[in-house]
Write a structure and sequence with these properties.
single chain; mainly alpha; about 10% strand
Length: about 130
């Protein structure tokens, strides 16, 4: 049995989408990840995406609107959740770009148990008990 090597890579949101989505970076990153996993079958990658430009743009827009209106007082908790949503958007984009080489779901709830990987093998077919046996 071979030993699995786990490597965690932080993919900053400012790299994924500095002002808009960096398609060239994402294409190259997907090719690199694919090559690494083909070359080293013991390698397991954990990718952590950041919120980047979209998170800041939405948070800043929320702050600007809150500052201009008396109906909406700026709430740090709401701003944090806006950043979380942008981070998840970047994570889903990474997963989609990686296609079949990223089979596990994006972690939405960090308190939930992670799925085991690789999944356990299917049970063997039942033996005996047949009419002709």
């Amino acid at each position: 049995m071979h030993q699995t090597r786990t490597v965690i890579i932080s993919v900053g949101g400012s790299i994924i989408a500095p002002k808009e989505v960096d398609e060239e970076f994402l294409s190259g990153f997907a090719a690199l990840v694919s090559r690494l996993l083909i070359e080293d079958m013991s390698l397991k990658l954990i990718l952590v995406a950041g919120g980047g430009g979209p998170a800041r743009a939405y948070q800043n827009a929320y702050r600007a609107i809150s500052d201009k209106t008396s109906d909406s007082k700026f709430d740090n908790n709401a701003a944090d959740w806006i950043g979380v949503a942008a981070t998840r958007l970047n994570a889903w984009l990474l997963k989609a770009v990686l296609g079949n080489i990223c089979e596990l779901p994006v972690v939405e709830d960090p308190t939930a148990p992670l799925p085991s990987w690789p999944p356990p093998p299917p049970p063997p077919p039942p033996r005996g008990g047949g009419v002709n046996e």
